[in-house]
Specification:
Layout lengths: L8 E6 L3 H11 L4 E4 L3 E7 L2 E6 L12 E5 L3 H10 L4 E8 L4 E7 L5 E7 L11
Parallel strand pairs: 1-4, 5-8
Antiparallel strand pairs: 2-3, 3-4, 6-7, 7-8
C-alpha cells in the first residue's frame, strides 16, 4: 500500500496571551494570518507549513524543549530587519560548524526560542524540492 500524501504541516503552540502573540507574529515577523479561529490564530510560514497559537491548549513554563526554526537564506537580512523593529536577540548571526548552519536566536512574547537559520549542508533539500 502506498503511503498517503501529507499536503501541509501545522505546528500548534500554547499562548497565555493571544493578543500579544498576534502583535508579534503579525506586525514584527509579518507572517500572514491565514485563519482566526477565535481561540487559535494560524499563520503561514511558507511552503505549505503553518504555525498556530492557541490559548486553550495547556502549556506554561514548558518552553525549554521547543525551538521554532524559520529557515531562510537571508539570516543577516532577518537580523537587520528585526533589529530595526526593536527586537532583542539572544544570539546574533553566527556559523555553527557542528551542524553546518548559519543562525541567530530571539524569543517571542511567550518565551519560545525562535531560530532563524540557513542550512549550509549540501544534503539539505532546497525549498520546494520535496
Amino acid at each position: 500500500m502506498k503511503r498517503p500524501s501529507i499536503d501541509q504541516q501545522v505546528t500548534f503552540l500554547y499562548t497565555a496571551d493571544l493578543a500579544e502573540t498576534a502583535v508579534f507574529y503579525e506586525t514584527v515577523l509579518e507572517l500572514p494570518l491565514i485563519l482566526d479561529q477565535g481561540a487559535c490564530r494560524i499563520y503561514a510560514t511558507g511552503g505549505g507549513a503553518f504555525l498556530g497559537f492557541c490559548h486553550h491548549l495547556t502549556g506554561g513554563a514548558a518552553h525549554s524543549g521547543v525551538i521554532l526554526t524559520l529557515v531562510s537564506q537571508d539570516v543577516d537580512g532577518w537580523y537587520n530587519y528585526l533589529q530595526q523593529k526593536g527586537v532583542e536577540f539572544e544570539k546574533p548571526p553566527q556559523f555553527n560548524p557542528r551542524f553546518n548552519i548559519y543562525h541567530c536566536f530571539l524569543r517571542d512574547p511567550n518565551g519560545y526560542l525562535i531560530e532563524i537559520q540557513r542550512f549550509d549542508d549540501p544534503a539539505w533539500p532546497p525549498s520546494g524540492s520535496l
